[in-house]
Amino acid sequence: MFLKALMQWIHVGSVVLMIGGFFFFRVVLLPIANRSADPGALITSALRRFGGIVWTALLTVLISGLYNFITFFRAARAGSAVNPLASDYSLYIFVLGIKLFIVFLIFTLAIFLTFPYPVFEVYQKRPTPWLNLTVIFGLIVIFLSAYLRRLG
Ligand code: HEM
Question: Which of 54, 57, 125, 141 has its CA 20 to 30 A from that of 47?
Answer without folding.
Answer: 141
